[in-house]
Design goal:
This protein is an all-alpha fold and about 350 residues long. The protein contains eleven helices and no strands. It starts with 5 loop residues before the first helix and ends with a helix.
């Protein structure tokens, strides 16, 4: 007999609300991306702002500390663009101009008779180079340039450049007040649960974005130094590409390694030496530097990271891949804290 089931109705309503929330997030993902990046940028600057507020702007409004940090940040960005950006642009132009020379050098190496056991592979690669080389200069290089542009488009878009620092300014200035106003909407055990969630997220997101920036800077420093010592051309260009790709989980470092090895093969550098360095640095970063910076870590299984990166790319492209790991880590924190709150006895 048909009848009204209140539990089924609540379940259906919950499913509808979740589906509605996911739909809103999907259709407003570009706007949400700006706010999420602004929050992460605020977490990145927060320690420096607190330091200035403690020792320099003591007794004054927090606005003075924020203004001082922003002035220093703009100065550093200008210096970085002048010194590193010009070098990267110069090496990119040289790479484009010298591409035919690289192809000729590669073909000479593939045509050598040694070693004998590698001849079948070398003949196949040589045939592929002969077939595709004429179009590589006109097709591959513009494609790589477009790919690189997609990676840095978030940083170069005028809307992001204007909105993200402005929003971050307000998050840093009024973040505590906004949090208190949000918590005022709850009470009792639910308020305690959300306080715990926000406390965990504050630590997690702060560690995540600061660790990523430090890892990116470390990648640029180690790569550019070693490539210069090894005589690999375009050391700053390759190191800059690897540093940017460090923000994309799993896929980014693998893509950077492939680009570096391809450049080493074209330039005649010692590929084995470059490969050993890449493996050694990856082991150092993944098992020493990154765990130290992340402290307790995001505690996500590698399979979840791979799934999140692929799903994020489908939903929002490269920004989605970048945000996939913190998004899953946030969901994990909310789930764990909610389970703990439910397990506590009612007071």
């Amino acid at each position: 007999m048909l009848g009204y089931d209140s539990r089924a109705a609540r379940g259906a309503w919950s499913v509808f609300l979740v589906a509605l929330l996911l739909s809103v997030v999907y259709f407003t993902r570009r706007v949400l991306l700006v706010f999420v990046l602004a929050i992460l940028f605020a977490y990145l600057l927060s320690p420096l702002v607190n330091l200035v507020d403690r020792f320099v702007a003591r007794g004054r409004s927090r606005t003075y500390s924020l203004a001082a940090v922003y002035v220093v940040l703009v100065g550093l960005l200008v210096v970085g663009v002048i010194f590193i950006g010009n070098k990267v642009a110069e090496e990119a132009a040289n790479l484009t101009a010298g591409f035919p020379t690289f192809v000729s050098a590669l073909k000479q190496k593939l045509a050598s008779p040694d070693p004998v056991w590698l001849q079948p592979v070398k003949r196949y690669v040589l045939a592929q180079v002969d077939q595709r080389a004429p179009s590589l200069g006109s097709d591959a290089l513009p494609f790589l340039q477009r790919l690189g542009w997609r990676v840095v488009s978030v940083l170069s878009n005028a809307v992001y450049l204007v909105l993200i620092p402005i929003l971050s300014f307000f998050f840093l200035k009024d973040g505590r007040k906004l949090t208190d106003q949000a918590l005022a909407l709850t009470s009792g055990r639910r308020r305690a649960m959300w306080e715990d969630i926000l406390s965990d997220l504050n630590i997690l997101l702060g560690q995540f974005i600061r660790a990523l920036v430090i890892l990116s800077l470390a990648t640029f420093t180690f790569y550019s130094s070693f490539f210069a010592l090894a005589g690999l051309p375009y050391a700053v260009l390759l190191a800059s590409a690897a540093a940017l790709l460090e923000f994309i989980p799993l896929v980014g470092p693998l893509s950077a390694a492939a680009i570096v090895l391809l450049a080493a093969a074209f330039s005649g550098a010692h590929i084995v030496v470059i490969l050993v360095f890449l493996i050694a640095y990856r082991l150092f970063q993944d098992y020493i530097l990154s765990p130290h910076l992340m402290s307790s870590g995001i505690q996500l299984h590698p399979l979840l990271v791979i799934f999140g990166a692929l799903a994020g790319e489908e939903l929002a492209g490269i920004p989605g891949m970048f945000l996939s790991v913190p998004a899953m880590a946030v969901l994990r924190v909310v789930y764990v804290r909610a389970r703990k709150a439910q397990a506590l006895p009612a007071s």
